[in-house]
């Protein structure tokens, strides 16, 4: 069971870009490119910078919560399906959770 880290992280603009990239499923190399820093810098942040680590954990926890809400909504749609014509609604709801779910599972 994961929990939100409650540290008030103060990170740089480059670190913030890297956090968003990593939380969205980018590799360390891709995150470094997006943040405009060396790959080794992002790797150091990921492994040794407590504020960066806390911010990344918080962002991933936020994304996991969003996925949970989307899955609950999907469950309600599927549960309400009584007619085959409503399958389109379920497919639309599923399409809305594919990307966030993939990011959380990779994270």
What does this structure look like?
With 107 residues, the protein is mainly alpha-helical. It has one domain. Helix content is 75%, strand content 0%. It has helices at residues 13-23, 28-35, 39-48, 50-80, 87-106. α1 (13-23) runs antiparallel to α2 (28-35), α2 packs across α3 and α4 runs antiparallel to α5. It is elongated. Residues 4-8 have low confidence and may be disordered.
Question: Nutshell version of this structure?
Answer:
With 107 residues, the protein is mainly α. It is built from five helices and no strands.
Question: What are the main properties of this structure?
Answer:
107 residues; mainly alpha; 5 helices; 75% helix
Q: What would the principal axes of the Cα set say about the shape? A: elongated
Q: Regions with pLDDT < 50 over 5+ consecutive residues?
A: 4-8
Q: How many helices in DSSP terms?
A: 5
Number of domains: 1
DSSP strand tally: 0
Structural class: mainly alpha
Arithmetic mean of pLDDT: 80
- How far apart lie the N and C ends? 15 Å
Approximately what portion of the residues adopt beta-strand conformation?
under 5%
Largest sheet: none
Rg is: 17 Å
Helix content: over 70%
Q: From N to C, what is the helix and strand string?
A: HHHHH
Layout of helices and strands:
Elements: H1 13-23, H2 28-35, H3 39-48, H4 50-80, H5 87-106
